[in-house]
Amino acid sequence: MKNRRDFLRNTxxxxxxxxxxPHLFAAPQANGTAMDMxxxxxxxxxxxxNSRFISVETPDVPQLSWRMDGSVKEFHLVAxxxxxxxxxxxxxxxxxxxxxAPGPTIQVNQGDRVRIIVDNxxxxxxxxxxxxxxxxxxxxxxxxxxxxxxxxxxxxxxEFTLHQxxxxxxxxxxxxxxxxxxxxxFIMHPKESYKPRVDKDFAIIMQEYAILPNIKVPNSMNMxxxxxxxxxxxxxxxTPLIVRHGERVRIRLINLGxxxxxxxxxxxxxxxxxxxxxxQPQSTWGPGNTVLVGVAQSRDVEFVATxxxxxxxxxxxxxxxxxxxxxxxxxxxxxxGMPAGLDMERGMGMLRQGSATSEENGPSLGRGLGVGxxxxxxxxxxxxxxxxxxxxxxxxxxxxxPQGMQMGKPEVSKDANSVPGFPQDAFMEGPxxxxxxxxxxxxxxxxxxxxxxxxxxxxxxxxxxxxxxxDQIMELRKKQEGNKPMKMDMPGMEDKHE
Length: 498
Known about the structure:
Blueprint: H1 2-18, H2 44-49, E1 67-69, E2 72-87, E3 90-97, E4 103-109, E5 113-120, E6 128-131, E7 155-161, E8 166-172, H3 175-178, E9 183-189, E10 200-209, E11 227-230, E12 241-244, E13 248-255, E14 261-265, E15 270-275, E16 278-279, E17 287-288, E18 290-293, E19 297-304, E20 309-315, E21 332-333, H4 344-347, E22 378-379, E23 406-407, E24 433-434, E25 459-465, H5 467-482
Parallel strand pairs: 2-5, 4-9, 10-13, 12-25, 21-22
Antiparallel strand pairs: 1-2, 2-3, 5-7, 6-8, 8-9, 10-11, 13-19, 14-18, 14-20, 15-16, 15-17, 15-19, 20-25, 23-24
């Protein structure tokens, strides 16, 4: 009894403390603008509870269609090679599902009986694991222990009843296939809607790839990553999250890679309301603005969008806010005689000889010293776009810029070369590269000119907009979607989460 009293006393005390930040927990007034899931998508069990839910949006990733076969909700997933543009002009060869990496988002309701047909169009065997699901062992998808691997050209049919709720995911259980992109979100909506109820519900899957310049296939064995993505896109190519000022927002963060990611939101405090194990008791909620999403974990965060503006949402690991980060080859924008770094492969951790801790393999470009740090050619730190044609001989040859990319003049002081540590950040790769027109989409309407020059890697926006601007973007989005033909995943799958 004493333990019970102590538990209740602590719970009440914590609840009182949380009440001091009421805007994190108060449900906003209903405004009738939230896109509820249509009741025809609800299971019979959910209909009896008379609950309605918000469909989860996964920007840049499609939703998976389904059809009813009696009382079973049936989905179809195809494991296959995927050619995907993760950044303007950067198309890479990944592996995923139904033409997407990550694969399409699956949404079901607690209590649903589901059947998932998995076809293997890969050149090697695969299997599908349902991460965190409490289902029969023979449906778990662990090759060798619960099933035989699915051979190339083969099929496996998974079928089970779902009694859980929360943010889950599916992925190949062949380790290196995970590193090629084979994961997707699996959302289980509860029988009774969560309280407080949200107006917007988003999912973001974090992935990382080691892809050298002029190479299109990730090195799944590598331990250093230079392309970091939200929902299969690197900033500024990913689509911002659009919310109306005053709405309550949930963001479901999913991580299946080699690194943990501290995800930070500008402009708002949030509470962590769920994990890969489901909804957390409200007594555990506490305010914050950064959440660590570990490998094989999911985290749900919620907040009320009370602060208008275009707010960054990003991983706070510095290297994860860059694209194409690798030790450069050839001329570097450095003072003559200054060590520049190792060659590209070793700069990304691909060792040729010796141990990883030996002096010859010391990380390059300021991440360590090492006798190999003079492996690259150094050059004077002249601006890449010459003011004087006579200076052109001091500069590296610049490739033709893609249409829509603008080069800004680097802003550096006259004595920059005398400052230890220079250059860092944007100047490290030359002038700022803005590509606003190359990533033009309705969700980017109204952003400041040049915004794209400072977005890279695991970075996107949460745009908290006044009603008029929000409605304008929604209208632009509707017009754009109206021009796209509907692509069905398989015949008869007319039911979709929109």
